[in-house]
Amino acid sequence: MTSKRILITGLSTYWGGRLAQALEQDPAVEAVIGVDKRPPKVALERTEFVRVEDHHSLIRRIVQAAEIDTVVDTRLVADSIVTSPKLAHENNVIGTMNVLAACGGPDSFVKKVVFKSSARYYGSEQDDPAFFTEAMRRPRPASTPIERDIVEAESAVREFAERNPETIVTTLRFANGLGPAVRTSHTRFLGLPVIPTILGFDPRQQFLHEDDIAGVLEHAVRRDLDGVFNAAADGVLALSEVIDLLGKLNAPVLPPVATGLVLPLLRRTQLPISADMLQHLRFGRGLDNRKLKATGYRYRYTTRETILKLREHQRLSPLRRGVREDYRYEGEVEEFLRRSPSVRRPARPEPRANLAAGAAPATDGPSAPPGYADLHAKEVIALLASLEPAALRALRDHEAAHAARKTVLAAMDAVLARERASA
Amino acid sequence: MAEPPAALVPTRGPNGGSAAGEPDLRDFLPGIEPDREIDDWGRSERFADLFDRTLIDFYYHLWFRCTIEGIENVPADGPALLVSNHSGALPPDAMMIMKAVREEHPRRRDVRMLVEHFFKGYPGFSMLLPKLGGVAAHPANVQRLLHDERRLVLVFPEGAKGTEKLFKDRYRLRRFGRGGFVEAAMRARAPIVPIAVVGAEESQPVFAQLGLLKKLTGLAYTPLTPTFPHFGLLATLMYLPAKITIRFLPPVPTDDPGVFGEKPWEDKGLVQTVAQDIRATIQEELFDMVGKRRSVWF
After folding, report:
1. pLDDT < 50 stretches in chain A
2. Which of A234, A241, A294 sits opposite B23 (nearest CB)?
3. For chain A, what are the domain ranges?
4. For the domain bounded by A5-320, which CATH number is listed?
5. Tell me: the pLDDT tens digits for B203-255?
């Protein structure tokens, strides 16, 4: 099935924002709607943001009113540093239940649910296999609240999949993401000038570049992937190797026994190490990413390349500070940009001027706006949304009579159909 | 659309796929990154090489003066599960077998050894063993090593029962686990190469087990040997200079459908029988070698 009307829950998370940015570029996607408690952190062109607590009746109303066919749930918090255990539980377990409740039911339009989970599902234990496959369970029950929540949330998703066999349910277990825009306890940990490790342990660790996070989510929206998939870059690195690549100092200062006792000390020194990260620093974790690769996804970065990218970012970030301002969401500005008739919509001003001038009321037969023939198919498609229906119809005739590029024609038809539907 | 539709993407590689139409995941193993010194299992080329050229080389050539027989029984390519008897308080046999395959085998193949999970919890060992090619003995790990990566894997089915047995029980094989190693080899369709090692028993004989010390230290086991516990951790490197002979026996195939059927690993009786046969083969070979050897030391 093709996803046309997509709801992203957790739009203000890094994953949700990146996914929305990727999806709104595609003219075949009719609507992208994002819900969250907080405003989005990235600039979005046509994604509509609705501020909603994850209350199921509200989400359900949005799903039904917008005839959403695909729900991507990116809310899951897997990092205990960023919230309190109570909030995390509220978000991960209760929130997931609410979102799923909004998607189910006989009258629902939802055909596909993509759930962003975490590799924390597997935990890090002494008797782990070197590479977790999707069919494996964690060898011991979860010991930290956040891991318990993830296991619980996933079982809710599994139950939903069983109850709604005709809905495609994708669960993606992500390895720890790294990149310039991701802020987790791991990026903070690897950003320390001297990296504390546990004496006598050199765990195997695997990461995922932020571009691949967005890429995998988009892949799951575009393809029909039923079931659970691990998402982790190729290559499992020893922590010492990671520290070497980053050009940092490896300080094996955490005691190998009774490591938990130093936790209060770490908290006082503001070191971003929590109880559940200690397990990861002791035993590490590796994922078998081949099931996702077999569906056609190609990772853009290996774990090693991800680390090298992070190093680049770490070196440049003090120089870049303040050069570019962070995006801030202003509801009224966004509203104005999207709805006001005074706004000239398309992003690229140069070709738009040409198109708008030339494609005004069609005169005798299909006429070409000046410079139109020089535009690539992709550029044309990007501009379509900005045109008046009449101009668009004229342009379609022109395209059909001349270059007749299939992709362009299809995109034009899609835009026209959408306009007809909304009229 | 940024990506081609599903129908255009080849989901089957050179290895074909299973009958169910599932793609063969072996085609999707990560590529090798030439700049890395450590592989995905945690083995460090540089460290293993350094260890090999110094300490292991000394023990192999000068201290234990290892003699190798039947190295041609180790396949030149493709997977194989090497199964050996296990002995000595801190057993030298694993390192010597790995060294033997690296030294004497025409293809100088690299062997991964299966180690107990509890080593992963020991500081130091947890770091050291993976660097030298140790992999936790998890069925999924064995399957990936043998079936997917087509490597040589060394396993000691006796496990800790072999190393903690007392000197009076030398060369008497312990129980071969639950036959898990046979199951793993059958699943991976890899032949089993039995190995008999003589000499390791005398290199670090165990006279008694010190139960109280074990309780106090929390170690996996605390044997009384000629050097432990009075030399402490140094004793782990103190071996008596016994002569070690390693004999590789002809491989036992596990993938013959005429003999074993389609899914032989599901037949627990068959698995146990094969495990017993291999145990008996190694036991007989050990008695033969011990009976005929000139001396413990030369």
Report:
1. 348-366
2. A294
3. 5-320, 348-422
4. 3.40.50.720
5. 988 888 888 888 887 777 788 888 888 887 777 778 899 999 999 999 999 87
CB contact under 8 A, A257 and B42: no
Q: Using the beta-carbon criterion (under 8 Å), do A199 and B35 form an inter-chain contact? A: no
Contacts of A290 in chain B (CB under 8 A): 25, 28-29
- The verdict on a CB contact (< 8 Å) between B3 and A295 is no
**pTM score:** 0.81
Cβ of A199 under 8 Å from any chain B Cβ?
A: yes
| Enclosing H/E stretch for A120 | none
Whether complex ipTM tops 0.90: no
User: Residues A179-212: pLDDT tens digits?
Assistant: 888 888 888 899 999 999 999 999 999 999 999 9
Instruction: Determine which of A19, A26, A126, A283 to mutate to test the interface with B (most B C-beta atoms within 10 Å).
Output: A126
The alpha carbons of chain B give a radius of gyration, in whole angstroms, of 21
Domains in chain B and their CATH numbers?
39-205+243-292 (3.40.1130.10)
- Tell me: the pLDDT tens digits for A143-178? 888 899 999 999 999 999 999 998 999 999 999 999
Q: Which residue of B has its CA nearest to A2?
A: B5
Residue B33 burial (CB count, 10 A): 15
Interface of A with B in 357-416 (CB under 8 A): none
